[in-house]
Amino acid sequence: MKIPFNLPPKSSNEEKYISQAISNKKLSGEGQFNKKCTEWFNKNLPTLMTVITPSCTSALEMAMVLADIGPGDEVILPSFTFTSTANVVALYGAIPVFVDVDPKTMNIDVDAIAKAITARTRVIMPVHYAGVGCEMDKIMDLANKNNIWVVEDAAQGIFASYKGKALGAWGHMAAFSFHETKNIVCGEGGALTINDPRLVARAEIVRDKGTNRQQFLNGQVDKYTWQDKGSSYLLSELSAAFLLSQLEEGEKITARRMAIWKQYYAGMADLEAAGKVQRMTVPAEAKANAHIFYFLLPTMQTRIELWTHLKEAGIQSTFHYVPLHSAPAGLKYGKVSGSMAVTDDHSARLLRLPLWADMTAADAQFVLDEVNKFFKGK
Ligand SMILES: *Cc1c(COP(=O)(O)O)cnc(C)c1O
User: Fold this and answer.
1) Which of 79, 82, 89 to mutate to test the pocket of ligand 1 (most atoms within 8 A of CB)?
2) pLDDT tens digit sequence for 201-253
């Protein structure tokens, strides 16, 4: 493969920080690097409290524990998302209620959320697809009026904002991912940001196996005990050391991705004008982070043909989510509210091009040339 779909970004201080973490002889989630990553989020989003977690999936799980969802409760989310968003809901016996997405952004449709709200609705989970912010002002209004929690799935949303406010700083809670396929990585890792003061005290207990160990470490109690439901939501200090180096250079990594994204966007303008493709749109209110460059093909058939053409040229392009409402577990645990027309149609015609921070302009041009070659005479 000449051009793989993704390669993880490299930052300057990963080895140095990992060596320091080893020398510090504090390898659990209470070390200095975990603390520094936490402070980075608290200061830069900003947010009230951050837990650096083993994954975005575990951050979403912790959010479900904090929202205290259980059997019969309903959680509204898009069907066009990664498995984890819905899986954490089913894990606690609650019902994922799938709604359609906006055709322009592939983000959750706010009118569809409004129609899906019932007396059992406890949480709304907007997913910032491709790092493009959902309409968070409207979603927060709707949620606050109905006394519903909002948990942003900001797995793809680091260094992006909506109406000038960072993704992950809008909801009552938000979950980020540092999986190697994301913009900022540490192998496997995530973060839960908490923006509502009502959740902070419980979060300290839930993150630490349901104990008040944090109060013990602070000298507030002389022994710690089991207080509440919880789990181990802490990241190893070795991974946190890697993560800090990445966060510190995150602006640069994002800018390098953005340059490639812009090259793709400009390079496909003519194809769009000729009606051959439809490029992704970033609304004026959203500052995106070049997590994904995607476009829609006219049909499912053309998508597979272009995918095959690129593969033969040594370029790895990829489709994206199989809508969860039609997946086996979605059928078993979830339910649908309203039409799924956009989700069904667009998910079958969407293609993502390779995009990573160290990709060169020549790499991107090679991809564009092959895309153009495919459409010649079509
Ligand atoms: C990557 C991703 C996740 C899962 O992240 P992990 O860190 O691998 O658990 C969840 N939701 C969305 C939208 C994602 O893109």
Assistant:
1) 82
2) 999 999 999 999 999 999 999 999 999 999 999 999 999 999 999 999 999 99
Question: How far apart are alpha carbons 283 and 342 in whole angstroms?
Answer: 18
CA atoms within 13 A on the CB side of 353: 28
Verify whether ligand 1 is closer than 6 Å to residue 156 (CB atom).
yes
CB 307 within 8 A of CB 317: yes
Q: Relative to the CA of 59, which ligand 1 atom is closest?
A: 9
**Domain 14-248 bears CATH identifier 1.20.1250.20:** no
Low-confidence residues of the chain: pLDDT under 50: none
Ligand 1 centre to CA of 82 (Å) is: 6
C-beta 56 within 6 A of ligand 1 = yes
The response to whether residue 155 sits with its C-beta less than 6 Å from ligand 1 reads yes
Q: What is the pLDDT of residues 34-90, one digit of tens each?
A: 999 999 999 999 999 999 999 999 999 999 999 999 999 999 999 999 999 999 999
CA of 176 to the centre of ligand 1 (A): 8
Q: How many CA atoms lie within 13 A of 139 on its CB side?
A: 27
Cα-based angle 141, 145, 147 (whole degrees, multiple of 5): 115
CATH of domain 251-375: 3.90.1150.10
The two structure tokens encoding residue 283: 């609304």
Give catalytic residues, as residue numbers: 182
| Domain boundaries, given as residue ranges, for the chain | 14-248, 251-375
pLDDT reported for residue 43: 98
